[in-house]
Design goal:
Blueprint (H helix, E strand, L loop, with lengths): L6 E6 L8 E6 L2 E7 L5 E5 L13 E3 L2 E3 L6 E2 L5 E3 L14 E2 L1 E4 L2 E5 L23 E10 L3 H9 L18 H4 L3 E5 L2 E11 L13 E10 L3 E9 L3 H4 L11 E13 L2 E11 L7 H28 L13 H20 L1
Antiparallel strand pairs: 1-11, 2-3, 3-4, 4-9, 5-6, 6-7, 7-8, 10-11, 12-18, 13-14, 14-15, 15-16, 16-17, 17-18
Helix pairs in contact: 1-5
């Protein structure tokens, strides 16, 4: 059901402050996160090996974490180093530790075999704090749905013409009536397309009657990471570029970076940023841009949670595919192949 040997987003960098002890659930595993005295992150199983109380209700003590039920203390590797009232520490007194990293705006946890954890598998090109080229805002949203349905939604943006008719789709049928180019990349897909003579979003600050040729390109990577840029070019650029990737400098550039994280088989967390090129900014633009996508993502959630309820209420049956499902089908096959490879190696 879930791919384990990969990095999952566990939250924003600031979610785990210097003195915080934070609980997360990822692919059914309960995890506790905290920082050592030097700021380095620690991720442990969120269940004390003694009476199975959550360690996320515990207390950080220097680099260690103390269970506040009966006082057992664990070091960053998950080994129990103190049992109040006795000198002997049982050999099995330990909890699982998880590889953890920081990249972009996110905390990442490796859920599988620690020996296979490589930070090279964290997506490249992530935008995070301190990068002067981009200005962005961020938010997160919980879904009562299997994460694969959210992946499907992001891999087939034809829904913008319908689900988001009056928001992101801006009453244009181009999303629904055109088909993107889909190219395989390592552990994912690249999806690219032109929208010709397109109305820009209001937060760009262009006149109400402005029109652009819009180039959108995104990478979609296992297990569910979406990295998109939208370039707004002068009319005629799409044709001059042969409907391929443009070489001209865009007049405006937007970006969004998103991560779909399965919590359980029927619950997911959706982390997302919304931003733009620093030279394109003005006072108040980021809140306007974030509000626009939050509004649209509520529309997505309404549809996807209703879809999940419809699936759960009926007998299993195959979905009928259309040409818009090219990226959806290919990414599902990529994920299935990775899961099967993992099972064979287990």
């Amino acid at each position: 059901m879930f791919l384990r040997n990969c990095w999952y987003v566990a939250g924003w960098l600031e979610d785990v402050a210097s003195d915080a002890v934070v609980a997360r659930t990822i692919i059914g595993d309960n995890i506790v996160l905290y920082r050592k005295s030097d700021g380095a992150l620690v991720a442990l199983q969120d269940r004390c090996c003694h009476r199975h109380a959550p360690l996320s209700l515990g207390r950080r003590e220097g680099n260690d974490l103390r269970c506040m039920y009966h006082g057992l203390k664990f070091n960053p590797s998950g080994q129990c180093i103190e049992v109040p009232g006795q000198d002997r520490i049982p050999p099995k007194a330990c909890v699982r530790s998880y590889p953890v990293a920081q990249a972009g705006a996110w905390i990442w946890v490796w859920m599988g075999d620690p020996a296979r954890a490589s930070e090279d598998l964290i997506p490249r090109g992530l935008v995070g704090p301190g990068q002067a080229d981009w200005i962005y805002g961020q938010d997160a949203m919980a879904y009562e749905a299997f994460y694969e349905l959210i992946n499907d939604n992001l891999l087939d943006l034809s829904h913008l013409s319908y689900v988001h008719e009056k928001t992101l789709g801006r009453q244009s049928l181009q999303w629904g009536e055109t088909r993107p180019a889909v190219t395989p990349i390592e552990r994912g897909l690249r999806v690219e397309r032109w929208l010709v003579d397109d109305r820009p979003p209001r937060h760009i600050g262009a006149p109400d009657d402005a029109r652009f040729d819009r180039w959108t390109a995104y990478d979609y990577l296992a297990p569910g990471v979406f990295l998109l840029t939208s370039e707004y070019h002068s009319l005629g650029t799409a044709k001059a570029s042969g409907m391929a990737k443009p070489s001209a400098r865009p007049r405006h550039v937007n970006m969004t970076q998103q991560a779909v994280v399965p919590v359980t088989a029927r619950r997911s967390i959706y982390y997302f940023t919304a931003g733009h090129r620093a030279e394109d900014t003005y006072d108040g633009r980021v809140p306007m841009q974030v509000a626009a996508v939050v509004n649209a993502f509520h529309e997505d959630r309404t549809m996807i949670e209703a879809q999940q309820r419809a699936i759960d209420a009926s007998m299993p049956s195959p979905m009928v595919l259309t040409s818009a499902d090219a990226a959806v089908s290919r990414f599902r096959r990529i994920m299935q192949a990775l899961i099967e490879e993992e099972a064979r190696a287990a």
